[in-house]
Design brief:
Elements: H1 2-19, H2 33-37, E1 48-50, E2 65-70, E3 72-78, E4 83-89, E5 93-95, E6 99-102, E7 110-115
Antiparallel strand pairs: 1-7, 2-5, 2-7, 3-4, 3-6
């Protein structure tokens, strides 16, 4: 399982790094995720829901994971507000990324499930 996720995690890291603004833009950002659910950041997800990609509606909660059931591109807005498209996400990918929205424009992947 880790061998399958390693290339995906590397791709996500490179995409987020490439989309990030100047080096110290997030130096003072505070990660408020632990206070959102009362759980440790690395605790398993306790909720799941099917995702309908939308260019105007946020998810009900910031994600902990995204599952992609049908391969394709995945356009998301991260918890930090940055929009990024993850190209060619494979079927069955479980992405440990925090997003507030899955965009309809630019998303060709399907059967997306959010975990939080």
């Amino acid at each position: 399982m880790m061998k399958r996720l390693t290339p995906i995690l590397l791709l996500v890291a490179v995409m987020l790094w490439a989309a990030a603004p100047a080096a110290n833009a997030y130096a003072q950002a505070v990660d408020d995720y632990p206070t959102l659910s009362g759980q440790a950041w690395n605790a398993p997800a306790t909720h799941a829901a099917a995702v309908t990609p939308s260019d105007i509606s946020d998810l009900s909660d910031v994600s902990r994971w995204l599952y992609v059931g049908s391969a394709g591109d995945l356009a998301v807005i991260g918890a930090d507000g940055i929009t990024v498209t993850l190209p060619a996400v494979p079927t069955g990918a479980l992405l440990p990324i925090r997003v507030s929205r899955v965009m309809a424009t630019g998303t060709t992947a399907g059967d997306i499930v959010v975990f939080w």
